[in-house]
Design a protein that fits this description.
Layout lengths: L1 H19 L5 H19 L5 H15 L3 H11 L2 H20 L1 H4 L4 H23 L18 H4 L3 H21 L1 H8 L4 H27 L4 H23 L6 H24 L7 H12 L1 H5 L2 H10 L4 H17 L13
Helix pairs in contact: 1-3, 1-14, 2-3, 2-4, 2-7, 4-5, 5-11, 9-12, 9-13, 9-14, 11-12, 11-13, 12-13, 12-17
């Protein structure tokens, strides 16, 4: 129940803070998230009541979404199209690098770990604000109602739904890699530790190399064409590897590295696309909404996939993910651009 509460709060907070980043200084939003996480972590390390723990989980989950979208807006402000992909990819390595720390901290006492993390985050918050205090500027607002589409009208955009659908596939496979594959490996006495390490290493390389490749291709073709090519290719390869993964898990290192590389490469590209679908005054809301829709991929990888596994076993992975490839081809064939144009406000 605690995991479900945290996931729900995180999903909602990502949407809320994404919209807020179009109206409030991204620096202040990130700082708010850091401070609340820091204070809550210290408090978390000193409590024992279930309801106190639940409160801490809600608090942390409710501000976890305060980091990503505001950070991408700052990155977009600092770098142009020729270097944006590379810097965006480096930014995206944060969560993957954090996963690599798990083997080193899993035997630490959880209370001490939380308190140390909270104190470190509190110190970092002061350094963060001191270094970037000149960026503490509220975004410029578009006062003309005719030139700014309403948030509700954006939900009618086929661009948003097409990007979210493909992004959803990547989130779905990531959930499979974090839940069903480890379960299958445990049932069949395969090396889970090897899979996890190679998965995280592949993830970091997938982030970095996809960004580097986009920067190289952008000099040869348009940014949208480059992103479409890399995004569709990485998603198609990811779904193909996911389909055959259960059949080939005896090659743990290769499959772990390949899945980590392709999951993070595809998420990196589609998240990058989502961050620049609209003008700066509405880009935060668009990015947050696309991410919100894509998170339903984790839902599809839950009970619906569990039903298929219960009835058909893990062999269902092949038709399940090949059907996704068919949908991916159908969406790609529509050739929908990457520029959101919502209906004008009345």
């Amino acid at each position: 129940s605690l995991v479900s509460v945290q996931a729900l709060c995180f999903t909602v907070s990502k949407l809320v803070f994404g919209v807020a980043s179009d109206r409030v200084s991204p620096l202040r939003i990130i700082l708010l998230g850091l401070l609340v996480c820091a204070v809550t972590s210290v408090f978390f390390g000193c409590i024992s009541s279930f309801y106190q723990i639940l409160l801490c989980v809600v608090c942390i989950g409710s501000v976890q979404g305060a980091s990503w979208v505001p950070a991408t807006k700052l990155t977009g402000k600092w770098y142009n199209d020729r270097s944006y992909a590379k810097m965006f990819s480096i930014l995206g390595c944060g969560s993957t690098a954090a996963g690599l720390l798990m083997p080193f901290v899993q035997y630490s006492y959880w209370r001490s770990l939380l308190i140390c993390f909270g104190l470190f985050t509190l110190t970092f918050s002061a350094y963060f604000y001191h270094t970037l205090r000149e960026e503490d500027i509220n975004p410029q607002q578009i006062k003309s109602r005719e030139s700014s589409p309403s948030l509700i009208s954006l939900t009618y955009s086929p661009v948003i739904w097409s990007v979210a659908a493909v992004y959803l596939f990547s989130m779905e496979v990531r959930t499979v890699c974090e839940t069903w594959i480890p379960l299958y490996m445990a049932e069949n006495d395969l090396s889970l530790a090897t899979f996890q390490v190679t998965y995280e290493i592949g993830g970091i390389l997938g982030n970095l190399l996809s960004g580097w490749l986009l920067d190289q291709l952008c000099t040869q073709m348009g940014a949208d064409s480059a992103r479409r090519l890399v995004g569709v290719a990485s998603s198609a390869l990811l779904l193909l590897v996911a389909a055959i993964s259960i059949k080939t898990l005896q090659y743990v290192s290769i499959i772990g590295w390949s899945l980590g590389f392709l999951v993070n490469a595809s998420i990196n590209v589609w998240c990058m696309i989502a961050s620049q679908l609209g003008d700066s005054h509405i880009s935060g809301a668009i990015s947050a909404f696309v991410s919100f829709l894509a998170n339903f991929g984790s839902v599809l990888a839950g009970s619906p996939l569990a039903f298929l596994i219960d009835n058909f076993g893990y062999d269902c992975f092949v038709p399940f993910f090949f059907s996704h490839i068919v949908v991916l081809i159908a969406i790609t064939s529509m050739n929908i651009g990457f520029n959101v144009k919502g209906r004008k406000q009345d």
